[in-house]
Amino acid sequence: MADNKPTAPIPSTARSRVPLVALAVVLVLGLAGGTWLLARHTTPEPTFVGHQLPPTPTAPSAPPQVVYAADWTHNVSEWNLPKIVHQQQGVLLFAGNGDVKLTIPYQPPVTNYTINVTMEVDSVGPAVRGGTITIEGLDSTGKSQYYAQLLCVGPGQGCHGGQYTLGVFSGHYPDGMQFSDFSIGPYEIPFKLEVAGRHVVFCKASDCESVGFVNVPTTPLKLVIDDDYLVMKIASVTVTVP
Question: pTM of the prediction?
């Protein structure tokens, strides 16, 4: 037979504990959801940075190429030296008692080149009060295309109270000229005459002047060094191209 004993009633404390547990679960879930939403809206989005390549190193510029270098020890004959100029231990010596024009035995086939001359002016010639040294480019008809000239006034050692002149020509009249006073002692100084397209730059050591051409000078040019009554020496002559 079935047991018809009545079921024992659930104590009131047990009944009240069940809703409290459910409420606690709901509160925990609500707080967790709120925290997740807050974190989602306050956490910054990650920034994606593209891959940055290292900078490409710049190749160093190539040094100028020497296309001609005077060798007066072995090839002095190609310079056709007059009697008042002679070679001694690879250096040209000028007596300073006349006008001497020397042609550099090389004609640059390009419009960009540099003439480098290392020289030393000892004094003005004994028979005059002033003298010049000129570097000049002549076209095929003998007309001057450009020139750089040093004027020295005597007496005394070196070149004092002088000036240098830089000029370029189209036809018979100069397109531009620059003048500058200077004095140099009796010691070697590098001089540079650079022709670059429509410009010619003349430098005495690091002191430079520049003028521009109306027309690019014709090539090839005859390059001339003209010593007019200066006692001096030339230690080296080179022609370089970029």
Answer: 0.70
